[in-house]
Design goal:
Shape: elongated
Number of domains: 1
Largest sheet: 4 strands, mixed
Radius of gyration: 19 Å
Strand order of the largest sheet: 1-2-3-4
CATH topology: Double Stranded RNA Binding Domain
Strand content: 25-35%
CATH superfamily: Ribosome hibernation promotion factor-like
Helix content: 25-40%
Distance between the termini: 51 Å
Number of helices: 2
CATH class: Alpha Beta
Length: 108
């Protein structure tokens, strides 16, 4: 998983970088096929904003959060992305039941 962090009016400290990496490991635990993650952190007056785009095969997932504290905004962002990844994974799963239809069952 490639991680790209950018900051607008904010310097990305090693502590923030490590925190984002540790939170995004939860997403990679649910779904191994995450290709690219782009995270943008910005500060506008009292609002701390975090936006992220996940590039997965067949789709791009986007989430944004805003809070007074950067760390809680990152927590909310990872919760949103986690829900989206689980939903994407369930959607793309194989819906065909093997030997489930009547025509595929053995007749004795």
């Amino acid at each position: 998983m490639n991680l790209q962090l950018t900051g607008h009016h904010l310097e990305i400290t090693p502590a923030l970088r490590d925190y984002v990496k540790s939170k995004l490991t939860r997403i990679s635990n649910h779904f191994d096929h995450v290709i690219d993650v782009k995270v943008t952190m910005s500060v506008e007056k009292l609002a701390q904003k975090v936006e992220a785009t996940l590039h997965v095969p067949g789709n791009d997932l986007h989430a944004a959060c805003e809070d007074g504290n950067m760390y809680s905004a990152i927590d909310m962002l990872t919760d949103k992305l986690d829900r989206q990844v689980v939903k994407h994974k369930e959607k793309n799963g194989d819906h065909h039941k093997t030997n489930g239809a009547v025509k595929h069952q053995n007749v004795e």
